[in-house]
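Obj.: predict assembly geometry.
Materials: sequence records (below).
Method: joint structure prediction, all chains together.
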Amino acid sequence: MKFVFFGAPGAGKGTMASRASTAFGLPHISTGEIFRGAMREGTPLGLQVKAVIESGGLVSDELTIGLVRERLAKDDAAGGWLLDGFPRTIAQAEALASFCPEDHVIDLQVSDAKVIERLSGRRMCKGCGRIFHTRFMPPSKPGICDDCGAALYTREDDREESVRVRLENYRGQTMPLVDYYTARGTLVSVDGEADADAVWADLRAVMEGLIAAEKA
Ligand code: AP5
Ligand code: MG
Ligand code: ZN
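Observations (raw structure tokens):
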């Protein structure tokens, strides 16, 4: 089944998509992670997108759509996928609908206050990309990833000024997709405000229901 994880910066898309990927055996495809991986490796793609990402801007539709289209054509995506961070403009949503239409869009709803709290304490693993939080999901040893032992870092775009730009872009360019997907009948809202285990329990039940309905 094909799921889009949708929501504000810091809503928990990456955290929940990672759990869902393990639980349902679907590949987790995060455009943000693809870009950050390219930036870490210093590839031409990484060099091209670094400045715009670090300042909180959006990468061009043309580049992002091409990248996702290629990724969804790989073998592991043939049986379904979890898209995280794409689409985030109407042009991207229309492109996806044309080459690989979604079954469901999970809209993780969180308040602005939570978004700020979550982004300001987020730490990412340099090695495997696992997501931590200094208060809500602390690693066992401060600054070290539980899974791979690599160092944790703070995302450049989690600085206050970049977060402000990301939230503006979310409101201006991405929120209109709520109406777009409501009209397509694929939008499912999930309350993302509670702690991670509680959100995951709700989300898991919702996804199981959608998968069961598809099989029935
Ligand atoms: P992207 O990486 O997609 O960033 P984003 O959408 O801003 O979302 P985040 O990754 O910040 O938040 P999240 O919802 O994944 O939250 P997380 O699970 O980490 O994109 C980055 C940039 O790349 C963009 O700004 C743009 O430049 C570019 N880009 C990417 N896709 C693009 C596209 N399609 N088009 C154009 N440009 C694109 O959780 C946040 C924190 O909260 C973590 O610390 C976590 O541990 C904690 N947490 C999570 N859930 C809970 C919970 N329930 N309770 C307590 N803490 C929680
Ligand atoms: Mg993310
Ligand atoms: Zn790691």
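Conclusions so far: The first helix runs from residue 13 to 24.
To do: check interface contacts against the pulldown list.
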